[in-house]
Amino acid sequence: MDGNVHTYKTQLVAKGFSQTPGVDYDETFSPVAKIKSIRVMLAIAAFHDYEIWQMDVKTAFLNGKLAEDVYMSHPKGFDSAEYPNRMCKLDKFIYGLKQAPRRWNLCFDEKVKEFGFSRSEDESCVYVKASGSIEVKSWLGKCFAMKDLGEAAYILGIRILRDRSKRLIGLSHSTYLDKVLNRFNMQNSKKEELPIQSNARLSSIMYAMTCTRPDVAFALSMVSGYQGNPGKAHWTAVNNILKYLRRTKDWVLTLGGSDDLRVLGYSDASFQTDRDNFRSQSGWVFTLNGGAISWKSSKQETVADSTCESEHIAASEAAEEAIWLKNFIGDLGVVPAIKEPIEIFCDIESAVALAKEPRDHGRSRHIDRKYHFIRHRIEEGLLVAKRVSSDENPADPLTKGLGRVKHLQHARRIGLKDDISFSS
């Protein structure tokens, strides 16, 4: 929900850490929805003005089928004076058991498929079925004890804002950022204009960046490599980011306002950014319906010996994400443009040329074959590489620190806005 306490519950939890593999549990994997998948679907919902409803399964784990023999000691206060050495044999899963999440997922998967849903091959927590009624809610209510939460307002601590008249959806992390600032006694700190200065070596913050704040991705990437042995400069950089987030905590990742529902990709690289090992920095971002749906800023795995090579590596990394987006969105069946090649924009002409065709010369013939992934996908007609100027490339701040004006311009290009009023 919104991160605040709404109800208090008494919960019986098993000591799963004492379980023995092969004896009282076997498989434990349970899929978790990717936050970028949620952003994709919200962008589509904003464009088509779809309903977004939220429901909760009460005591979800009790629905899983327990196959193993699992015993548990009595909770304090429930010991029997007549049978002091007896244990509880569980009939159903409870929280704490290692296999409980997996069995609940299998149970849910079975029930929704009975109702005609199909599971996405590229996102195990997304199910698709064309329906214009509330029968889904009724069906789930028959299968499980459900709580209807109404129109979605919060998801994973992220506030969902909506203006249906403008077909806009906004994702806000202001409540979460307030708590982070309070935790580090930064709520009254000076407000910074930038997450990282253009001449700084380092910088940093995590959950907010992953969900709604791509503008601090580069800063986080730079400072995270020093978590094991941080110095004073690194702490200063972290504080600088907290101050920046305080200034911009009301920014909203806005999805909507576009006339065309089409995925656009942008990639960039900063040559040999890391002065310790001379590795370059990759950055890419994909937008849909006017807002960012997926992004990354990371150090490249290998040392590039030219700007062209570093840009080619970044573009190839972006191409991998583009293929996943193409497959996942294609499964949803509501974005016709996804059948067309996805455009990936790069701001270096030589890198665009290298992605399109095998130019064999001394500066590129040594490049690892895996980084030619983008070229093969272009040949298959799945992607298109195009050039864009640095001033119009929103992936630019994912690879380097910029001045205030350019940083703000790029933030606006990927949907980060503070000047739009949403009707809750």
UniProtKB/TrEMBL annotation:
Coiled-coil stretches: none
Ranges for domain Reverse transcriptase Ty1/copia-type: 6-133
Family annotation (InterPro entries): DNA/RNA_pol_sf, RVT_2
Protein name: Reverse transcriptase Ty1/copia-type domain-containing protein
Species of origin: Lactuca virosa
Source lineage: Eukaryota, Viridiplantae, Streptophyta, Embryophyta, Tracheophyta
